[in-house]
Each structure stands twice: as C-alpha cells, then as structure tokens.
C-alpha cells in the first residue's frame, strides 16, 4: 500500500510517498505530485522511515510520580489526566490562571495547536501558551506585521524561477532548507545570469555556491541593508510610483540611511565596500528580487529591526506582489506557520487576531462560548516562562513535543527552573527528550504517520497528513490528549471531539473573512487536491484554483490605511559586549544531517556519519594565539557556562568568530556538549526572540 504525506522536519514541507510492505516494513520516496518538492528529498527526509521503524525509545504508557525522588509508575490515561486536571484546578484556584502554562512546538499539527490555544486562552483564562517558534520566527512575525499589516509571507516557491537576484541573508538553505536550495541552484544552472548574494559571517555551503559572499561582522546586518538602501536611492533604483501610491515612511527612511557613508558601512561590516556596491547594482538591475532569511536575522536582540531593514529594500523598490519579487522568511519547522495561524504565540488569537485587541477577544469569546473573559494581557513567552518558573510566579508547565533542555538559551538556567517547578507535564514521543527526567507526569504521544492532521509550510501551503500506522503501546494523538484533558477539567461540552477533522472544521470557520480565510479547506478537499495555499475561502476554487500563490498583487496591504509601512531602523546592535575576558563571538546553528535536538535524526546511523560529535569552529589565527591545535579538546568559556568540545580550525569563520552546532544535549551523562550553556537569554524587546547568534566567549585548550 502507498500513502501520501508530508515530511515532518523543516518548513520546506516536502511531499513524501510511503510504501508499506505486507511484512510491515516501510520505504519512502519524494512525492512527484507535491508542488513543494516535485519528488526530491534531502538526506533527513530520505531517512525518515528509520525513525518510525525504530521504536526503541518510544514512550508507551502514561506515567507519573508524586515526588521527584520516586521512580515513575505506569498508570492509566484516566489516572494521569485526572491527577493533572486536579493539580491544574488547585493551582488556578489558589494562584490564578496565570500560574499554569503550555510550552508547545512547531512540530505540532495545526489541530493540536488550535486546541491548546482554545483551552488555555478561551477556557482556563490565561494567555500562557508559547511555542519554540518564539525561538525561530517571532522576529519575522513582528517584521511582517509592522510593514505589511499581518504575518503574511507574500511569495511562493514558484517565484524562484521568476527571480534573477537572490539575497540570502543569515541563512544556510544549502543545509537547512536543502530542497528549496536545489531548486534555486537548478534555476541558476539553467539561467547563468542569475545572481546569488549570500550574507553570512561564515563561509557556508550556501556561501560557496553564491556569486557574491559578504562575510559581515556578526551583528552588522542592518548596517549593510541600510547601505544597500542608500545606494538604491542614490542610483534612482527606487520605485517612486509604488512609494507615492502604496507606501508610507520613505522620507524618514532616506534620512536614516543617508547618515552613514558606504565606506563607513563597509568598515563596520568588515567587508570591502565594493561588495556593497555590487549587491546594490545587481538588485537595482534585477527583474525579480527575492530575499531569503532565517535565524541569522531572527535570532537577535535586534531581530525585528534586522527584518525591517531587509523588508525595506523591497518596499522602496516596489519589489513585492509581483512574480519573482518579495521578502521570503524561510520557516524553520514543519508547521511553525500553522501554529501562528491558530494563535500559537502568547500574544495571538486564531486567524491572526491579537489578544490586546478587545474586538478580537470578543469575537473569540463568542465563537468559543467561553466561560471566562480572554485575558487582555499577552501571556508569558518562552524565555519569560523560564524566568517565571525560577521565581515561582509560574507553578506548572506542560511541555509538548519540544526539548527546551537543549534548545533554550542559557540552558543551565532552564534546567534549574524545571528542577524548581512545582508541576511538570511532559507530552512527547521519545524518552530521549531531556525533559522527561524532570517530569511529574509523562504522557506518550503518537508520532508522525500515527495521527492525522494538517501542516502549513513556508509558502502558506496546507498539506494533509493521514494516519498510516497505529501508535505503539497506549500512545495517543496529541489532539486527543488535549481534548481528553479539557473534558477532565470540566469543559467537555466545548471539547466533545471524536476526530481531528472536527477540530480543523471549527478552526476554519473562525478564519472566515480574515486575510487567512481557509473556509474552503477541508480534509476532503485536501485529500483530493493534495495541498492548498491560503487564503482559500469557501467562494474560491470554482475555477479549479488550488489557493493563492502570491499576496499583495494589488498593492493593498493589511495595514490600517492599506499602505505598506517603511520603518527606518538605526543600525545599532544590542548583543552582549565582548571584552578582555570573553573576546570572541560565538554563533550557533545547525548542521546538514541533524534536526534540532536529535531525538529523531540522532537515531539514524547514516545521518550520524556526517558529523558524529559536537565541535567548535575557530579561525586558525585565533587558535594559534591560544595554542590550540586541529582536533584538540578545548573549553569554551562564557558568562553563563562552559562547553568542552574538539576544535575545528577553519577559515570558514571570520577571525574573532566561533561556531558551534546547537543539536547536542547530554552525552555520556555530561551536559558539556550543549552549545546553549553559552548563549544568553537576551531577547528582542518586541519579538521576545533570543539572541542565539551572538554570545561573548573565550576558548582555551583543555
Ligand atoms: Fe524534509 Fe525539509 Fe528535507 Fe524537505 S528539505 S525532505 S521538508 S527536511
């Protein structure tokens, strides 16, 4: 038997065909019918079936304990959920609804995200739900809202073949979005005049296959973007018609970018000024200008300003809403966008509504028939939850399908906070999740292929994922765990679901009339069409169209006055300073064959061959003055902790910069492999996204 589904790793959202043999063995290949990958898969996707067939690490039964010094006991689902409901009810009565929180994941399906949001925001009365998307896309969300009016990615993958200049900034799609990158490479191979500009302090594989690599100093992205903006203005490459009729803020922007000369900008960025001139010249002459970015811009103390400085280049040149043109934030996780659609951040409500908007709250209260008023104050964000656990403002946390003991910044503080928490629920697939050791209740979740639901990829494309396999033991789909818990909390009439399709239909209804209207999308239509790009209302599709490829073709934006907003931004960086004690900058990131905290990819022998151990990349000149040899064990010291790994001497990193992958958690009972021992919990003031890409460190031989 064969089944069509979607890869559960990155936001490219590749279609997969699963073949199930009579003996139960699985094989897979890329789905040639899926428009996002047209049959291709990267190394992670090609090996996904091994993670399903190896069930040695699966959590199989609900477990709980009454004291952390006791071993976990296997219990029934009823016992686990009744105890959890009793603890939540007691804490809420005694300390109020903000004493509990959910921390969820961009791995969750849309239906799961929707249900958790409905439960805590509409029934418990707190907005304390955040997601690991806070660590990933929240700066892009704020950037889009400020400039375009809503969190709406304007472009689609088909724009790749329409573009002739790609500005890839703070991203390494050759490793992290490989199928998208192959499509760009194929387009360039067929059209040699296409230009790729890569902005990255590291010489990544993306940089190697670009026409122009600008290895800027960490934290100087805004300096560079403002300098490019200045050159576009000086060379009459702006679109005056677009600015006059469709955008506000150009005059202030011009004043801002004229404050710094190109030579000054080049000096600050640590690159030759010729590189800036070349980038601006190529953008000015292009017919299609696509910019792509990920964590290098988002994970920053000035992440929103970095986003704004890049989106501004599209707004001053009118390069948006036209084929081959637009800003394109590449989603890290498979359903980070689906989560944002359902209100899966502490400041959001479903369908891009906002908790601070009284009319939006009233709409959702009426729709949900809420027994309480939705709180007007945004809930705790990811890092704020850790602070609140530490000082006992937050008493209980329920962690779903994410591994904050590896992925949070300043992870030693996260570990202390979880130890201190009064009540921790861990809902996960794998016993490899580092959080399990701190749990009071463990709930086994169904994995990929074991539950049905939907996900939205980086180009607003919704895919349906069927249930293909039975979950092992007593593991349940995440959505069912949440609706069963809501029933135990006494909200049964509003959580009386029996299947995920009912949840999707309910969510779709509340999108009616919004910019992300998906009232035309149902499981039946998705099974028939395979995928649909939102918006797709109940009035669409009569002509056979499968959604909306591109937004803003009419240059009507979702802002109050319908005009795009150009936001001039200063080029300061607010990261922690380096000094004599910690003179180097550490940046973190991903490697080609691992995914996040390795609970899945770490079990696949083939994938571990690429880079079997954590490492630190350091420039040979920085290594020499410290007496560090190739392959030597070094201690990386920072203001919050240390790491001990082998040194890789390479001029792929700039002098003064080190790089360490973020994937590894505890190995051999040591937590000295965790890159996030060193990162800091400094966040962007508006997006609350942490500054993972800039931590002050020193490196010494060990
Ligand atoms: Fe999966 Fe992303 Fe690889 Fe596609 S590119 S196969 S979605 S990990």
From TrEMBL:
Cofactor: FAD; [4Fe-4S] cluster; Mo-bis(molybdopterin guanine dinucleotide)
Residue ranges of every copy of the 4Fe-4S Mo/W bis-MGD-type domain listed in the record: 1-56
Sorted UniProt keywords: 4Fe-4S, FAD, Flavoprotein, Iron, Iron-sulfur, Metal-binding, Molybdenum, Nitrate assimilation, Oxidoreductase
Family affiliation: Belongs to the prokaryotic molybdopterin-containing oxidoreductase family. NasA/NapA/NarB subfamily.
This protein's name: Molybdopterin-dependent oxidoreductase
Upper lineage: Bacteria, Pseudomonadati, Bacteroidota, Cytophagia, Cytophagales
Residue range from the parent sequence: 1 to 702 of 1172
């Amino acid at each position: 038997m064969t089944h069509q589904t979607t890869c559960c790793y990155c936001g490219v959202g590749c279609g997969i065909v699963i073949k199930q043999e009579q003996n139960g063995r699985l094989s897979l290949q890329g789905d040639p019918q899926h428009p996002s990958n047209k049959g291709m898969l990267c190394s992670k996707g090609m090996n996904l079936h091994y993670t399903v067939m190896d069930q040695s690490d699966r959590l199989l039964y609900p477990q709980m304990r009454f004291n952390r010094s006791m071993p976990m006991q296997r219990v029934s689902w009823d016992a686990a959920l009744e105890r959890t409901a009793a603890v939540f009810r007691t804490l809420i009565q005694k300390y109020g609804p903000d004493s509990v929180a959910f921390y969820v994941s961009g791995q969750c399906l849309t239906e799961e995200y929707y249900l958790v949001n409905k439960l805590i925001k509409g029934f418990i009365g707190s907005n304390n739900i955040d997601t690991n998307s806070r660590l990933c896309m929240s700066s892009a969300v704020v950037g889009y809202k400020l400039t375009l009016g809503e969190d709406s990615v304007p472009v689609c993958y088909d724009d790749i073949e329409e573009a002739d200049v790609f500005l890839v900034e703070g991203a390494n799609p050759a490793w992290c979005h490989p199928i998208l990158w192959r499509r760009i490479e194929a387009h360039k191979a067929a059209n040699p005049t296409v230009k790729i500009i890569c902005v990255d302090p590291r010489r990544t594989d993306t940089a190697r296959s670009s026409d122009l690599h600008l290895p800027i100093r960490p934290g100087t992205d805004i300096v560079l973007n403002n300098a490019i903006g200045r050159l576009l203005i000086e060379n009459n490459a702006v679109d005056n018609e677009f600015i006059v009729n469709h955008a506000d803020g150009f005059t202030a922007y011009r004043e801002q970018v004229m404050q710094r000369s190109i030579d000054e900008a080049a000096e600050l960025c640590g690159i030759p000024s010729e590189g800036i001139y070349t980038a601006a010249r190529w953008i000015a002459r292009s017919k299609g200008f696509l910019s792509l970015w990920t964590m290098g811009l988002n994970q920053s103390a000035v992440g929103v300003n970095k986003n704004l400085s890049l989106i501004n280049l599209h707004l001053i040149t009118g390069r948006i809403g036209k084929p081959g043109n637009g800003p394109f934030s590449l989603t890290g996780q498979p359903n980070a966008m689906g989560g944002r659609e359902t209100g899966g951040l502490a400041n959001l409500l479903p369908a891009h509504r906002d908790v601070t908007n009284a009319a939006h709250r009233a709409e959702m209260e009426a729709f949900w028939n809420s027994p309480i008023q939705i709180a007007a104050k945004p809930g705790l964000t990811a890092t704020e939850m850790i602070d609140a656990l530490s000082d006992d403002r937050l008493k209980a946390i329920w962690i779903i399908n994410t591994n904050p003991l590896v992925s949070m910044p300043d992870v030693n503080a996260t570990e202390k906070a979880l130890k201190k928490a009064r009540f921790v629920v861990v809902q996960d697939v794998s016993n490899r999740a580092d959080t399990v050791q701190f749990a009071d209740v463990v709930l086994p979740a169904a994995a990929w292929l074991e539950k049905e639901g939907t996900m939205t990829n980086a180009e607003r494309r919704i895919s349906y994922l069927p249930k293909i396999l039975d979950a092992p033991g007593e593991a349940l789909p995440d959505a069912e765990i949440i609706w069963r818990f809501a029933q135990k909390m006494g909200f049964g009439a509003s959580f009386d679901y029996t299947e995920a399709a009912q949840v999707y239909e309910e969510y779709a209804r509340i999108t009616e009339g919004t910019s992300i209207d998906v009232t035309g999308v149902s499981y039946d239509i998705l099974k028939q069409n395979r995928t649909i790009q939102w918006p797709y209302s109940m009035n669409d599709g009569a002509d056979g169209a499968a959604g909306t490829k591109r937004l803003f073709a009419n240059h009507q934006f979702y802002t109050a006055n319908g005009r795009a907003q150009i936001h001039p931004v200063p080029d300061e960086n607010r990261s922690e300073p380096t000094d004599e004690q910690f003179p180097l900058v550490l940046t973190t990131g991903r490697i080609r064959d691992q995914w996040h905290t390795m609970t899945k990819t770490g079990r696949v022998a083939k994938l571990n061959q690429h880079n079997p151990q954590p490492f630190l990349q350091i420039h040979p000149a920085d290594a020499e003055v410290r007496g560090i040899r190739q392959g030597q064990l070094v201690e990386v010291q920072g203001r919050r902790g240390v790491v001990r790994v082998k040194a890789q001497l390479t001029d792929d990193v700039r002098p003064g910069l080190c790089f360490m992958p973020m994937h590894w958690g505890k190995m051999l009972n040591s937590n000295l492999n965790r890159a996030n021992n060193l990162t800091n919990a400094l966040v962007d003031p508006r997006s609350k996204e942490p500054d993972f890409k800039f931590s002050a460190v020193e490196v010494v031989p060990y």
